[in-house]
Structure formats: C-alpha cells, structure tokens
Amino acid sequence: MLVYKFGGASIKDASAIKEMVKIVNQCDDNLIIVVSAMGKTTNRLENIARLWFNGKDIETPLNELIDYHQNIISDLFEQNVPDNLNSIYESLWEKLRSTPSLDFNYEYDQIVSIGELLSTKIIASYFNILNTKAHYIDIREVIRTDRNFKQAGVIWNLTKRFALERFTFENYKIYLTQGFIAASTNNQTTTLGREGSDYSAALLASACNAKKLVVWKDVPGIMNADPAWMSDAQKIDALSYQEAIELTYYGAKVIHPKTIKPLQERGIPLIVNSFIEPQKKGSFIGNVDDSKSTLPVYIRKQNQVLISIRPKTPEFLAETDISHIFKLLSDMHISVQLAQMSAASFTICIDQIEYMFDPFIAELQEHYHVKFNDNAEIITIRNYNNESLGKVLKNNDVLIEQKTRKTAQIVRFMEN
Ligand code: ASP
Ligand code: MG
C-alpha cells in the first residue's frame, strides 16, 4: 500500500480537488489519503481561536471561513449538495458559543482541528458521488497522543495497533483521513503542531509498512531554497534521511521535522511531488549517499527572538546558571535554535511563541540581566562556500555567525 498526503494548497479550491482525484485515480495500489485543511484554513482558525479566547468579536473571520468552504462545496456539487454537508459547521458554532476554559492550547486544538474535519468531510462526500470510493476514517480513533495540546506527543504502540486494526484494506482499496489532528487517550482532540500532516502521513506509512509516502505539493520537490526568497532555487533530486532531518532541524519548511524518523526506521522512501505537474519527477528521500553533495542549501528561519543573558553580579555565568536557563526552557517547552557563550553573556535564539514568551522573559529577569530583540532571523547554509555566503550576507549586519565544516549559520535582523 501507499500513503498520499495532500497539503492545504493542493485542495484549496474545487479545481485543485478535481486534480487530486485524478492523481488518486492513477494509483493502482491500495492507498491511504491524508489531507490537511483547505488552503489557509488553519491560519483562519488560529485567528478565530485567539479572538474568541480573548473575548473578541469573531463574526467576520467566521463568516469568511464558512463562505470559503461553501464556495468550494457549491463548485464541487453544484445543485446536489449531499445532506450530510449541511451540518458540518455545527460543532464549530457550538464551541464558539461556549465560554473558553483557561487553557489556551487546549482550546486552540478544539477549534483549529475543525479545518481538517471540514476538508475531509467535503472530500469524502465528493469521492462518494464519483466512481472512486474512499472510506472515511476519523484519525482521532487511530493516532493517540499525550495531552500536550498544540504539540501533542504520539503514543506509538497504541497508534500502530489502531492503525493496523482500522486500515485493513479488506473491504476498501482507498481510505481518506485527516492529517495534523489526533486524540488523547481520554478522547480529547489534540494537534501535532503546525504543518503536522506530513508527520501523520509518515506515522500511518510506518504503521502499515507502506511501499512509499508521497507528499503532493505546490513546488516541484524539495528545493535548495524557498523559491519566494531566491528566484534561482533548484530542485534537490535525492536526499538521505539524515540530510533531510538536518534540513528540517534548521527550519526547512518543505516537510515537518518529525516526518522522517518513522520512515527511516522502516526504510520507507518519501517522495515530494508537484501536484501541478504530477508526471514530473519530484525529490526522493531515502537510503541514498549524498555525503559528497556540494549544492548549497539555504534555510531561513524568521521570527526569532535573540536573548542575551548576563549575571546580575559582576561575575561570569556559571554552569549552574546555564543549567538553570535550560531547565526553564525545557519546562516551558521552548527549544533553542542557536546558542552562543561569551565571557560576558550567554545568547540564545528562540522562536517567538505566543503566551510563552512573556512568562519566560519574566522568569529570566528575576535572576539575570536580560536583553532581547524579537526581530531576528537565522539563515543556515548547508554545504556553504564563499559564494553562497556572499549571496546571503550582502550588506546586512551580522549579529552572530557560527560555522562548522558543512554548515554556516548567521543571525541577523529580519529584512522587511
Ligand atoms: N492544516 C495544518 C496546518 O496548516 C496541518 C498541515 O497543513 O500540515 O498547519
Ligand atoms: Mg496546511
């Protein structure tokens, strides 16, 4: 069997969904289709969740979200909208009429997960009226997690068992299910982190021992830079699992960082294909030797906060201070993107995380002198050389520069 994953862009309107059906029809193997929310739905729901949590008016963004889906429904079904699609917004309405609890991350998951429920219900109904029959599975009955809402950790043995029980291919050749969302063992909806559908697809591929996982994207494959940033970006034809992990670690957005490991463990290849030109060869990630590759790969991680920490007394920071700082970071689930020690201070770069940043800084300030700048970005170049460094540096101020044999990293202020 194979697993196909379609991201938001590849199901963003009725014509994209029709293209997706064509791609599915060309597959002769047993298939699990994993889809995310349509277009920019997750961003919209994030916005709604935030407004609602803060007691603000949500009418306009809610109407936009519903209109967007209704347009797709009427384009797909014209006059014959199936009955079950008439009630798809009910759980969202019900949620938004209730009073939020104090736990933003919990509420976030309850609201944001609705994007994937909407997309899969609409697409399942559309498959239903075609000759392509796809069996709908609510993935919350399969992927089980802890209760770390918004970034839930997967409980692998349960997930694997439920996946093998549900995706049997006895009565169906094609299954359709959600990426990104899951459920805790006490049946509360959780999510796996933004862009997490790739990870969901990899979990299912691994559990069911798929021949391969194909991720359909609006780019020709994995590029050596974001084409919106560098117009001469090139496709990378083949990548080792290890190199793919490195790239996602540094912030490459093509695939979710957690996607590779479950695949690597079972030697399942990951193919990144263009849904715009499905017949073209995309990128292959698997057991390949790319250790001699010289193609520079550019990764830009924006919205970083550069924090510099100094002791309050005129002394150096001691190891106990560093360990205290890392303990705080780990307690707050904040990961460090880059760190640098000097005689005078300890500097770290972290992602800007809402509701997390202020308490973290406040806690730090109790013990240290803290300065921060929240307008930074980290540029990473794998296989760097003078030319590739020059291309990135131009005349920007470099705040930090770190190099190893293969990798150069630069922290600078974000370009506007
Ligand atoms: N819809 C989710 C998001 O946009 C998950 C995904 O697309 O992978 O983050
Ligand atoms: Mg998405």
UniProtKB/TrEMBL annotation:
Its EC number is 2.7.2.4. It is an enzyme of class 2 (transferase). Substrate binds at T42, E116. The keyword Cell cycle does not apply. GO terms for molecular function: aspartate kinase activity; ATP binding. Pfam families: AA_kinase (PF00696). PANTHER family: ASPARTATE KINASE, ASPARTOKINASE. Keywords: Amino-acid biosynthesis, ATP-binding, Kinase, Nucleotide-binding, Transferase. The keyword ATP-binding applies. ATP binds at K5, F6, G7, G8, K253, V254. GO terms for biological process: homoserine biosynthetic process; lysine biosynthetic process via diaminopimelate; threonine biosynthetic process. This is Aspartokinase. Residues 2-272 form the Aspartate/glutamate/uridylate kinase domain. It comes from the Bacteria.
